[in-house]
Specification:
The protein has helices spanning about 1-20, 25-35, and strands at about 40-45, 50, 55, 60-65, 75, 90-95, 100-105, 110-115. With about 120 residues, the chain is an alpha/beta fold. The chain is globular, with a radius of gyration of 18 Å. It starts with a helix and ends with a strand.
Length: about 120
């Protein structure tokens, strides 16, 4: 019984550390597996995307919603589209072909930005 309490206390401490530090185990594993393709993070904040980015082909871009309302990240050429992102949700896409990718929020179409892939 003491061992169960000890294991419970340990697992609770670990979970608390993960929550407090904001650690995402799958995200850490993805970065460790392929750090050269980890790319910029684009913030969704105050009903805007930022910043526009220029990247190399093969780079993964991640969007994070910091607003209190949902947003959907979608390219105007239907190359990528996220699910509805609630506060602090993330969406990533790996760009494999050069070009300029204009994207917008399908919920708030005035929100636009671009990714340039070289």
């Amino acid at each position: 019984m003491k061992r169960m309490k000890w294991l419970f206390s340990l697992s609770t401490a670990i979970l608390s550390a993960v929550v407090i530090l904001g650690i995402s185990l799958p995200r850490l594993a993805a970065k460790a597996d392929n750090p050269s393709t980890a790319g910029p993070e684009i913030k969704i904040d105050n009903f805007s995307f930022g910043p526009d980015v220029t990247i190399a082909s093969g780079t993964t871009v991640t969007w994070t919603n910091h607003d209190d309302v949902p947003h959907v990240v979608a390219s105007d050429s239907n190359v990528f589209k996220s699910k509805a992102l609630d506060t602090d949700d993330r969406f990533s896409y790996t760009f494999t072909k050069p070009g300029t990718y204009v994207y917008y929020c399908t919920v708030h179409p005035r929100m636009t930005a671009k990714v340039v892939v070289q």
